[in-house]
Amino acid sequence: VRISTRAGAAARLLTAACCAACAASAAAADASSASNALARDMLAQLTAINTTDSVRGNVTTAAEAMAQRLRTAGFPAEDIHVLGPSERKKNLVARLRGTGAHQPVFLIGHLDVVEARREDWSTDPFQLVEKDGELYGRGTLDMKGPDAIMLASLIRLRQEGFRPTRDIILALTADEEGGSANGVEWLVQHHRELIDAQFVLSGDDYSVLVVNGKPLYFKLVASEKVYADFQLQVTNKGGHSSVPVAENAIYTLTRGLDRLAAYEFPFELNAVTREYYRRLAQIESGQRAADMRAILGNPPDRQALERLSADPVERSITHTTCVATRLDAGHANNALPQRAQAVVNCRILPGHSPEEVRQQLVQVLADPAIAVRYQGSDGTLTDHAPAVRGFAPPPLLPEMLAPLDQLVAATWPGLKVIPGMSAGASDATHTIAAGLPTYTFSPLSVDPSDDREHGRDERISVASFYQANEFFYRYLRTLTAR
Amino acid sequence: MTLSARRLRLAALLTGLLGGAALAADHPEAAAGRGADALAHDIFKQLIEINTTDSVGNITTAAQALAQRFLAAGFPAADVLVAGPEERKKNLVVRLRGSGRQRPVLLIGHLDVVEARGEDWSTDPFKLIEKDGYFYGRGTLDMKSGDAIMAAALLRLKQEGYGGTRDLILALTADEESGCCNGVEWLTRNHRDLIDAEFVLNHDGLVGYSITSEHGVPQEFALSAAEKMYADYQLAVTNRGGHSSLPRPDNAIYQLAQGLLRLGQYSFAFELNEVTRAYFERMAGARSGQVAADMRAITRSPADAQAIARLSLEPELNSLMRTTCVATRLDGGHANNALPQRAQAVVNCRILPGHSKEEVRKELVQVLNDPQIAVRYVTEHGALTDIAPEQRSLPPSPLLPQVLGPLEKTVTALWPGLPVVPFMNAGATDGIFTRAAGLPTYGVAGIAVERGDVRAHGRDERVRVSSFYRGNEFFYRYLKSITAPEVP
Predict the structure, then answer these.
(1) Is there a contact between A145 and A239 (Cβ–Cβ < 8 Å)?
(2) C-alpha distances in angstroms, B33 versus A104, A112, B203, B408?
(3) Phi/psi class of residue A113: alpha, beta or left (left: φ > 0; alpha: ψ in -120 to 50)?
(4) Residue B373: pLDDT band with limits 50, 70, 90
(5) pLDDT tens-place string over residues A112-155
(6) How many CB atoms lie within 10 A of CB A11?
(7) Helix B289-299 vs helix B274-286: angle between axes, to the nearest 10 degrees?
(8) B346 → closest Cβ in A258, A313, A333
(9) Around Cβ B388, how many Cβ atoms within 10 Å?
(10) Which of A254, B51, B341, B451 is least buried, going by the fewest C-beta atoms within 10 A?
(11) pLDDT tens sequence across B236-246
């Protein structure tokens, strides 16, 4: 009890110090805390609306509720749209109009969440519960927290009467986690006019990586690898297992897999991964830092590359990767296999097409008896893969990066923004495919070893939520003040 | 082609062309033979049309139908027994009494058949259909044809007033293909007195036949005198897994694949036994050129390594020379986008006589050469054990002159020039139970099947009409020969 009293006193002291130091108007502090309260209130409302893909979920309800928030805040009706291909899966698109000096910026966040079962959780996953300085609930991190922050920032700018130099468009959407009515893809394909922009900011990843209680760096995802599954298949006439024959579907497949295991796709950097290593080298030390600099040279240092590639993370950033993830063969213990197959999962560097990778796999496997087919996300197989090349990322836009660098340095002295490439796939896939440079960050602080996205007892810290809310508001304001 | 081989083929061809007509003209028992054919056909049809599958079939119905025929033919009720551990799975044991100068011979055949789905077949699998010179139906080859032939032979001998030197015991049984209550095993354990014999003839042969033909010409008569032992093993690799966007060098699938590559390249040691040695010696006479020379070279001591290597390229011969183990199933991973936490394979082995299941498991561990690949034994019920049974594959049955002599005589009479070759089955039959009970056991059936057209267990199972009748005549004559009062 004494400790908590002391802590409370210290907190009050800090607040007072802050106010004195800021020396800004009391109004600013009031606006900040009002925005935090609004953001939290909206997060509580969103958490309580089940937006899972299951029959109980309804994204439209959440979109309508947030549309109502915007109307209440004074956004004109013509700048608020709730629309989508499915009754239960409608998206919200809102616009804060600016001077039009620059092309718009487009903010995206998904409203849907992955399933959560009450019996697995310590609290009700569909109620926002504060406990020990943390906010618990499904979606607090992924990504109703960032959704609420984006909305609150937009409302705060609107209420301040701020006129941005570019329109700020916000879309809160359906079916990022699953389902067949992906909102971003649908908007890009059917309502390009509503969302056309110079670039996109997605809030779908926390950015401040905290390790052992200390922020390590600020992660800015500026590129994505392309996901593709391939099926390798060998067929054989089979026969009775008492008389093994030379040609065996399983052995043919395993010979191919052995060659695949030994193969490495070529080393390749792009504008984003170059910047990643350039900046990371300033944080790292010793051999690793030296190696990062050495692979940026022309030609890149082979030995440095080999050392770095021993780390699966660095290897995935510098190469397309393909790995066998599933096996299936045979139909009876006492019959020679008539069929053997494997799934190979690839993460393709931007600038290359799935079909290009499929052809490379055919070469690596070096056996015409192994058929290599593309497996779509719905499981269908095709002899050829899509030939569309993912856009290689353009150099990082200074008008996006400079304010971020500046604000990060001001908020977390010494912390660096490290732009990177994600090996996973998010809704950015759709905006990148539409030719819109897309940057993903959300200024929430999370310890990656306690990342509860998709898991039980998902949470964010209250302090981090408020800090991120203030950060994002300032960033948007700076970004659109020029 | 050598002269002798050409003569042999010509003789076989002639026999094939002349068929039953030549026999009918040559033999005084021709009329009886035709009557016997009709009888065998009737029994065959009756059996095919009684469903004896494990799922919905009833073995007891078939056993009782045959028992009725024996009783009607004058067999004393004491010599016709229908018995078994389960209502639906009773076995028939019939004894035709001889003079008792020699010990009895036990004839075994299973009445059960594997499942057959009407929609997969061109004909109703549970009707005997004659079409284009074949009998179609489930069990026409495996092995209701043999059951009918053995039953018909006993009835014919009885009708003739049997005066043979030995009792002939016929056991037609349940659950050879699958199921709870294997009839032969049950009889050897519970009614040894009923079935005790000097030796056993199993009409299952290879799978219901012993003669392999090519283009309709019989090539060899295989006398099955040994069986390999069946064993399944599971190879498993586990791994902590992870997200597939970050592949690591340690990967359960790749690790298993590397083990399987070593297994695929490995050959178990070359080894002959009495039966396979005789097989190669006799086949050397029937084959020509390099193959014949190689067959001779591997039967000498020491065996010629290059000859072994050349013959091993032929899968059928390879399986006679060594234990074989082959990967038959694979399973690994749980999601396309996750590194596999587990990869596993089933390896099916056929073990040479004299070797144990645990011995083979240990050899697999050595071959795979990776302590992270766990090698477990899979029991017949699918359970896994870390160690396999010490149970050894049974030694071959000795090539007894009282079995082989009459067989060669009978085969030569019906198929002049056809070589009789001792053979080791790579698969398993009910012979494992009689052999385990200490009874020498021989697979013998006068039915011929074209190489590559063995439809046992498959769809549109069939047997040639002419071959069924020839097989019927063969078996009757062979029984007469092994029970003849004066040894020729």
Answers:
(1) no
(2) 100, 83, 20, 21
(3) beta
(4) very high
(5) 999 999 999 999 999 999 999 999 999 999 999 999 999 999 99
(6) 10
(7) 150
(8) A333
(9) 23
(10) B451
(11) 999 988 889 99
Furthest-apart CA atoms within chain A: distance in Å: 89
Residue of A nearest to B255 (CA): A258
- Name which residue leads in pLDDT, B29 or B87: B87
- In three-state secondary structure terms, B472 is helix
Select the residue from B262, B314, B326 to test the A interface by mutation, using most A Cβ atoms within 10 A.
B326
Q: Phi and psi at residue A40, in whole multiples of 5°?
A: -65, -40
B333 to chain A: nearest residue by CA?
A: A326
Q: Where are the beta strands (DSSP E) in B141-204?
A: 168-173, 199-202
pTM, whole model, 2 decimals?
0.82
- Give the C-alpha separation, B54 to B71, whole Å: 27
For helices B252-265 and A249-262, give the axis angle rounded to 10 degrees: 130
Using the predicted structure, report yes or no on whether residue B293 has a pLDDT greater than 70: yes
Mutation for B interface: A225, A321, A325, A374, most B CBs within 10 A:
A325
Distance, in Å, from the CA atom of A415 to the CA atom of A471, rounded to the nearest integer, reads 14
Q: How far is A186 from chain B (nearest CA, A)?
A: 25
Closest CA of chain B from A454, distance in Å: 14
Nearest CA to B227 out of B276, B295, B278 is that of B276
Of the candidates A195, A54, A175, the one whose C-alpha atom is nearest the C-alpha of residue A110 is A175
- Taking the C-alpha atoms of residue A329 and residue A342, their distance in angstroms, rounded to an integer, is 8
* A153-171: pLDDT as tens digits: 999 999 999 999 999 999 9
- Chain B segment 306-345 residues within 8 A of A by beta carbon are 313, 315-316, 318-319, 324, 326-340, 343, 345
Query: What residues of chain A lie within 8 A of the CB of B338, using their CB?
Result: 325
Amino acid in the structure at residue A81:
H
Q: Is the pLDDT of residue A3 over 60?
A: no
- Is A100 in a helix, a strand, or coil? coil
* A225 vs B contacts (CB less than 8 Å): 245
Contact A244/B319, CB-based, under 8 Å? yes
- How far is it, in rounded angstroms, from Cα A404 to Cα A412? 12
Q: Which residues of A touch B331 (CB under 8 A)?
A: 327-329
**CB-based contact A320:A273 (threshold 8 Å):** no
Query: Do the beta carbons of residue B213 and residue B445 sit within 8 Å?
Result: no
Rounded Cα distance between B202 and B432, Å, is 11
Residue B346 near chain A (CB below 8 Å) = yes
| B210: nearest Cα among B60, B429, B59 | B429
Of residues B179 and B135, the one with the higher pLDDT is: B135
> What are the CA-CA distances from residue B205 to residues B184, B281, B449 (Å)?
16, 20, 12
Tokens in use for B91?
Answer: 């076995």
**Per-residue pLDDT tens over the stretch B381-425:** 899 999 999 999 999 999 999 999 999 999 999 999 999 999 999
Closest residue, chain A, to B332 (C-alpha): A327
Q: What is the pLDDT of residues B111-160, one digit of tens each?
A: 999 988 898 899 999 999 999 999 999 999 999 999 999 999 999 999 99
Whether chain A has a CB inside 8 Å of the CB on B286: the answer is no
Crossing angle of the two packed helices A144-159 and A462-479, in degrees rounded to 10: 50
Compare CB distances from B261 to A255, A324, A333 and report the shortest one's residue.
A255
**From CA A160, how far away is CA B8, in angstroms rounded?**
108
DSSP string, A445-480: EE-GGG--TTSTT-EEEHHHHHHHHHHHHHHHHHHT
Per-residue pLDDT at B97: 98
B378/A333 Cβ within 8 A:
yes
Q: pLDDT by residue (tens digit) across A193-215?
A: 999 999 999 999 999 999 999 99
Residue recorded with tokens 């057959």: B116
